[in-house]
Amino acid sequence: MAMNYFHQVLCRSSVWERASATRIIPWALNGLDLGDQALEVGPGYGANISTLRARVPELTGLEIDPALVARLRTRRSDLRVIEGDGTAMPLPDKEFSSVVCFTMLHHVPSPAQQDDLFAEAFRVLRPGGVFAGSDGLDRLAFRLMHIGDTCVPVPPATLTDRLTRTGFADVEIDTGATMFRFRARRP
After folding, report:
1. Residue 176, CB half-sphere, CA atoms under 13 Å: how many?
2. Tens digits of residue pLDDT in 126-164
3. For tag attachment on the chain, is the N or C end more exposed, with fewer CB atoms within 10 Å?
4. 34, 39, 91, 35: which is closest to 60 by C-alpha?
């Protein structure tokens, strides 16, 4: 996963953390109960952690970038941080009541690997657990911000079928002006 310099600066800024806390997470998780133990796939610089910690007693972050893992471990004692790939999670089956990811799916290098991430989210969820999050819509501004990044947008129109094939039920996809949200349950 590659991120250009602009993207790195934005994702570790207080502006992004505020946008996450006031717009992204409230919209993506509106009306959802995350249960007692959530996994955030791809916490990156940690912009979502404070907001998620207010919603769930135990939060684990799974991050692929070793430098970001070290940064999170140093700065966030309220987060259990695991270094690993979302497409092959080094976690036991059925450990979490919820799995969430925000504005990171497009950084997964291929649709097949995105599907692997969905399958892993399903595997680590308990029965009845929720998989939810958001990602950006494939627009010109989105593409420009990602020049030099790994950027494989997820078409919202295909996501219901992809999640259903994985085994998820009660799939809901909603599209906003610049992003979409998704939610699904493990039966």
Report:
1. 12
2. 999 999 999 999 888 877 777 778 889 999 999 999 999
3. C
4. 39
